[in-house]
Amino acid sequence: MSTDYDVAVVGGGPAGCSAAVFTARYGLDTVVFDRGRSSIQRCAYLENYLGFPAGIDVETLYGLMHEHVAEAGCTLVAEFVESVTRREGGEGFVVETQAGECVTARRVVAATRYDGEYLRGLDDEEAMFETYEHDGETHERFDRSYAASDGTTPVGGLYVASPSSEADRQAVVAAGRGARVGLAVVGDARRARGRPASLADHYDWVRQESTLDDEWADRGRWREWYDERRPANHTDDEQWQAMRERDIDRRLGTYLTAEEIEQRTERGHRRLLDHVDDDLVLERAREIRSETVEAGE
């Protein structure tokens, strides 16, 4: 099935960006739609987002999230999504923006907190939406318990990171749920590409090369490990070997030398400086220079 994207994420807040980073880093062609009105922008200042001991202003965090999305390889589109519908034939989705532009995607991640109006028609509305009373009137809203804890839904290929009863109140929780949903998407994509359930889970991390012992540096040992997990009904030897070798390449490629770690550390610090006020950087540089002179170094 040919589509414009493997994954379309609707919402560019913490949940959507987190999911997109995981899918794009795995190699799934990902687009993120963000209208610039994420609920996080209603916050005055974030003081409980892990990693920022003095807190972080919303504008800076938003900029960091979107730069991370772009660095991972996502396409970021500043448009409001009007609707998500099934493609003709029932496989994949058509995502239409308010401006009338359409793209197709194999999978869709809903990551907008307030409502799921753009999802109407994808499933039985009694299952997807719930009624509630407000000021004596009956209203409908997206059912926050519609999706499973990993974001999967009764609609094949549709995932919900938000709205969700588990992750709608704190930005750091929303980011965590987005990551979980992103990994669920990756796992489903791996299964669709022939990985058996025993090998579908994916871990996105890099490790120190110094921790790689002789046993697991050997491709032959990895081949044994994979073959031990080969299902009895996987009878295509050529397909199995090709999949196994790709996975081994990916695993061995996650080990970094000390030099590579140092290079990435410096690059990461420099990228952070792009989001810090220049006057504060200069002020701190002057303080460091003064402290060095006083110490006689």
Automatic annotation (TrEMBL):
GO terms for molecular function: oxidoreductase activity. SUPFAM superfamilies: FAD/NAD(P)-binding domain. Keywords: Flavoprotein, Oxidoreductase. It comes from the Archaea. Pfam families: Pyr_redox_2. The keyword Oxidoreductase applies. Gene3D superfamilies: FAD/NAD(P)-binding domain. Coiled coil: none annotated. Residues 5-112 form the FAD/NAD(P)-binding domain. InterPro entries: FAD/NAD-bd_sf, FAD/NAD-binding_dom, Ferredoxin-NADP_redctase_2. This is Pyridine nucleotide-disulphide oxidoreductase. The lineage of its organism: Archaea, Methanobacteriati, Methanobacteriota, Stenosarchaea group, Halobacteria.
